[in-house]
Amino acid sequence: MTPSRNHTLFDQARAVIPGGVNSPVRAFGKVGGTPPFIESASGATLRDADGREYLDFVGSWGPMLLGHAHPAVIGAVVEAAQRGTSFGAPTEREVGLARRVVEMVPSIEKVRFVNSGTEATMSALRVARAATGRSGMLKYRGGYHGHADAFLVEAGSGAATLGVPDSPGVTPGTAADTRTAEYNDLDDTRRLLDDGRVACVFVEPVAGNMGCVPPAPGFLEGLRELCDATGTLLVFDEVMTGFRVAPGGAQERFGVRPDLTTLGKIVGGGLPVGAFGGRTDLMDLVAPAGPVYQAGTLSGNPLASAAGNAALAFIAEHPELYTHLEALGGQLDDGIARIRGTHGYPLTWNRVGSMASLFLTEGPVTDWPSASAGEAERFTRFFHGMLAEGIYLAPSPYEAWFLSLAHTESHMDRLLTALERTLATVFGASA
Ligand SMILES: *Cc1c(COP(=O)(O)O)cnc(C)c1O
């Protein structure tokens, strides 16, 4: 038997990279075992270093709305690369990408590009503090907004997976400016905004980093009203939901306009891009138009702008993409309802468009306490069972599943068949 390349690579990686990975959740810490090292990807399929293929529902954690190696995106990147990979000077492509973002996202009048979602959120927070002259920031328990210090308080996703919601290295002073409320709880939010010291509310308009948790009816509208009443800015962190739950993101889907929006993931078409944008009066505070400093050597990078442009152009020209994703999602809704009905397993299925989560609990799952109620050991068996079936899900219960243009009806059948078999072993065949 040939030794596993995945094992060898993981050993080599751990010798020179902390934990062997460049982002914690990739290491399979929560579920154990060796992560597949990916060699290539196409459409909805990943291929690892041992030559195994997987049907992918991670989608690089969100960016791959069009599937892997989409020809329009790859073509644009190759063409751009041949003309040079970085200039540190303005280019026509950036203008094109900015115009697309402004056209597609309802509340954005001006936008600045950065290199990650983390950079987008930390910059938007700086703008909000400058605009209001206030220091406080409110976020939700289980809400993830990247790894800047101010946000590493009761953050979901990777931090929750590791069980270190408050990271060492974040100073007490920084953490003291961050207030945390329960998601979907307007009373809790009202109480924390009352003293008028909060610059902005940061919210995932559909939570995706405690698993997928939709906003309760009226929650986003209520936030808009509370912010207006208290002079607080409303920031939608649409790094995950942007261009995914609708072409214009959650603000289009739910009809609520934030003051500032952060973007990432899909906006880069699979290359490293983030963005923050909003009303002109707020964005004109950003240097060099205004005094709020923000900069980046590789921001607006030609390859990244080309990929983002190609992805957004495709999305804008193919609105039927969302019908396709909704149909696939509906197929999963029906299939999972049938499995639940037939076997009586405790399952909660939350879905908004092409982002979804299956919680191995009775539910409902509406906030962090209910999202984190499942047993870790049960999730581990579920995850490894699905992986053995060739289904690649995030190795954490606090991550969403993503559907893409490359997924088909028969892929959904494969997923449902694998689910039914795996759940039988997780819950015992005759639950
Ligand atoms: C992924 C994510 C981020 C962080 O983006 P990075 O590019 O990983 O820095 C921020 N906010 C939300 C809602 C995200 O899903």
From TrEMBL:
Keywords: Cytoplasm, Isomerase, Porphyrin biosynthesis, Pyridoxal phosphate. It comes from Gaopeijia maritima. Its main location: cytoplasm. The keyword Isomerase applies. Belongs to the class-III pyridoxal-phosphate-dependent aminotransferase family. HemL subfamily. InterPro entries: 4pyrrol_synth_GluAld_NH2Trfase, Aminotrans_3, Aminotrans_3_PPA_site, PyrdxlP-dep_Trfase, PyrdxlP-dep_Trfase_major, PyrdxlP-dep_Trfase_small. Homodimer. GO terms for molecular function: glutamate-1-semialdehyde 2,1-aminomutase activity. HAMAP family: HemL_aminotrans_3. It holds the Pfam family Aminotran_3. It catalyses: (S)-4-amino-5-oxopentanoate = 5-aminolevulinate. Its EC number is 5.4.3.8. This is Glutamate-1-semialdehyde 2,1-aminomutase. It comes from the Bacteria. Pathway: Porphyrin-containing compound metabolism; protoporphyrin-IX biosynthesis; 5-aminolevulinate from L-glutamyl-tRNA(Glu): step 2/2. Its cofactor is pyridoxal 5'-phosphate. It is found in: Cytoplasm. The modification N6-(pyridoxal phosphate)lysine is found at residue 265.
